Amino acid sequence: MNTRANTPAPPPGMLVTGHFHRGPRYATYREHGTRDWLLVHTVRGRGRFGHGPGEWVTQPGDWVLVRPGVRHDYGTAPHPGLWELGWAHFIPRPAWLPWLDWPEVAPGIFRLALRDHEFAPRLRRRLREVIRLNAGPSRQHEGLALNALEEILLWCDLANPRRETAGLDSRIRRSLEFICEHFAEPLTVARLAAHGGLSPSRFAHLFRTQTGETPQRYLELQRLNRARQLLEFTQEPVAAIARAVGFENPFYFTLRFKRHGGVSPRAWRQRRRPDGPWPAPLRPAPAAARTPGAPA
User: Fold this and answer.
1) What pLDDT, on a 0 to 100 scale, did the predictor assign at position 294?
2) In 3-state terms, the chain is what percent helix, strand and coil (to 5)?
3) What is the pLDDT of residue 99?
4) Local structure of 111: helix, strand or coil
């Protein structure tokens, strides 16, 4: 299949998707690009993207973004002469735009190489879901597909080397997820370390190095932030909320809440805000504060 300059752009709309198996003759050329963004994922084989100085070749596991108005000159690479790809033309929601700041390999062409990344299987599954939903019979097919595409862009943003979170050790990332899912349970450093496959001392050191916080403080912040939500949006007694977020002793819960929020839980519920600022959601320490590639 060989398409040249007069190839029409995809029909207007928020989302157009597809999954191709293409041979050596496949090529697409649009001198002025399109008015939407193009996302291409190489599943097997290799594709090529032409640009001013030459061309760039994708590998399996690569995710490519092409900005609106950028020339579309892409197709199957000569070797091995086949290209399996999933693709989506989309108009981003305004909130998505910061997530599209990927490393640029050519003017207007961006890439994330995620073949061996821990997120790779999840991303492949979600792209298949985007394509399936967008072709489905539901009257909400495009909205559902856009939500799945949004999830892809969010996970890609986490893996983006331009983001501070990209440098997190996968064991620490899994521990953060585990804490957020199980913060109401009794969690010790030993249990968290075992979940990440590390010794307690190594885990505590690596956690502090990569996030700027101790595991105990991170856990406490998750519990207290959840307590703040429950105080604001439910009428549950303070003692019940304390137990629900992992504090067995309501008095100790009140002390910790007041330390971080500036007022007691009851005062928070009445006033809806503390005297001082509530701690912002924890973010990893700046890259300069971490030790990249620290040995396990």
Assistant:
1) 37
2) 45, 20, 40
3) 92
4) strand
pLDDT of residue 14: 81
Residue 38, pLDDT score: 95
Overall fold of domain 170-271 = Arc Repressor Mutant, subunit A (1.10.10)
- Domain locations along the chain: 15-159, 170-271
- Nearest Cα neighbor of 98 from 154, 165, 144 is 154
Q: Quick one: DSSP state of residue 2?
A: B
DSSP structure string for 46-97: -EEEEETTEEEE--TTEEEEE-TTS-EEEEE-TTT--EEEEEEEE---GGGG
What DSSP character marks residue 292? T
C-beta separation of 123 from 63 below 8 A: yes
The pLDDT of residue 280 is: 47
Over the chain (296 residues), the average pLDDT of each successive run of 10 is: 51 81 94 92 96 88 94 92 96 90 92 91 96 92 94 93 71 86 92 90 89 88 90 91 93 92 87 51 43 38
So what CATH class is 15-159? Answer: mainly beta
Q: Degrees (nearest 5) of the Cα angle 29, 31, 34? A: 90
DSSP state of 135: T
CA dihedral 163, 167, 169, 170 (to 10 degrees): 40
Q: Enter the tokens of residue 263.
A: 């007022």
| H/E segment holding residue 202 | helix 200-211
Residue 1 tokens read as 């299949």
Please tell me the pTM assigned to this model.
0.65
